[in-house]
Amino acid sequence: MSASSTSGVARRRRRSDRSPTIHDVAKAAGVSKSAVSLAIRNQKGVSEATREHILAVAQELGYRSNVWARSLVQGRTGLVGVLLQDLGNSYHRDVTAGVEDAAAEHDLRLVIGHGRRDQKRLQAELDSLLALGVEGVVIISAWVPPAYLDQVARRVPLVVVGRLPQHVPGLDSVANQDEIGARAAVEHLVELGHTRIAHLTGSTGPAAMQRRRAFRQMMRSLWPEVEPQVEGPDQLQAAIKYLVFQVRQEVAAPTAVFTQNDRIAAELVGACIDAGVRLPEQLSIVGYDNSSVCRMLRPQLTSVDQPRVKMGHMALNMLFERLGGRTEDKHLTVAPSLVVRGSTTSPALQHT
What we know:
The chain has helices at residues 3-14, 22-29, 33-40, 48-61, 67-74, 90-105, 119-131, 146-153, 178-192, 206-222, 236-249, 262-275, 293-296, 308-323, 347-350, and strands at residues 79-84, 109-114, 137-140, 158-161, 172-176, 197-200, 229-231, 256-259, 284-289, 302-305, 331-334, 337-339. It is an alpha/beta fold. Mean pLDDT is 88; it is low at 1-7 and 9-16.
C-alpha cells in the first residue's frame, strides 16, 4: 500500500468516532467482506499479498475482531475456564501457566476463577465461568464436591489437576503420583542415616492422605516396632511448635521431618529459626512441590518436584481432545522427582 493511501485510511479513521467494522475494512482495502474474514482468521482463500494488505488496512483503521459476535456465528466462544484454589500458591500459578501455554497453541483464551481456598467460593466461581460461556474448565483443586462436578461434566468438558476423593464419570484428570514422591522423600532421609523421621501435614485432602499413607507404610516396613510420628492436620501451628519443642528439649526427638508441602516446610523453617534451632545441623527438612519458595529459604529447601507446568499443559490438551469429540474418560499421572538442596544432611553431621 502506498503512503498516500495509508494516510487516506488514517484520515477516514479520524473522521469517525465509532469502532470500525469488517465492512469498513473491506471498503478501505477494496476487497470483499469474505476476503477480510479469511485474512483476519488466517484461513486459506486469499493470497499472502492480499492478506498482508488487508491486515495492514485493518491495523490502520484500528479494527479489532469481535470475539463474541464471531462466537454467535460459529456456535462457540473459544474460551476455556481455569478454576484454581489459591492464586497465592506457586503450585497453582505454575499449573495455570502450563494451561495458558497449551491454550495458545490451540488458539483458545483463558478466563480465570479464583476460589481463595474456600469451597463455597470455588463452586460459585465455577458457576460464573459457565455463565460466561466457557467451552470447558480446567480445575486446579480437589475441593469442588464430586456431586457438583458430576452435574457440570454433563454440560461442558472438565479436567481436574489433582486427586479427587472419588471417581466422577465423564471427567478427566491429571495427577502427581503422591506415593512415589513421599517414598522418595523418606528414602533420601534414610539414605542419609535418619531413623527418627516425622511427617507434618495440614490437610485431609486426597493428595495429602496419599503422602501420609505412603509415609506410614514405608516407616512401618523399616521399623515395624515404632509407630510413625505424624503431626497434624488439625492445629497445624500447634503441631509445628511441638516439633520444635521436641528438637530443643527431647533426647529422642526427630532428626528429620517430611512435610506435606513447601508452604508448611517454610512455616517450620521460620519456627525453627525463631527458636534458635540450627538447620540442617539440628533438623533436616524435606518439602513437597519444589515451588519457588524452596530457593528463597536458607538453607534452600530439599523438595519433591511435581512437573507443574507439564501437568497444566497435559490438562488443556485433554480438554481440547474432549472438545474434538473424545468421549471416553482419561486419567493420567506423572512421576515426581526429588531435588536435593541444603536443608537435609546426615544425622551424624547434625551432632558434630
